[in-house]
Amino acid sequence: MEYFCYHRDRPGSLALREELVEAHWSYMDGYADRMIARGPVFDEEDTLLGSVHILDLPGPAAARAFAFDEPNYQAGAYRDVLLRRWRNLLGRTMWDFPGGAADGRRYLVIGLGPGPRPGVGSGPRPRPDVGSGSGSGSGAAEGRAASGPAVPDVRDDLIAYGPLLSDDGTAWLGTAALVRARDAAAARAVLGDQPYDGVEVHLWEFGGRR
Question: pTM of the prediction?
Answer without folding.
Answer: 0.84
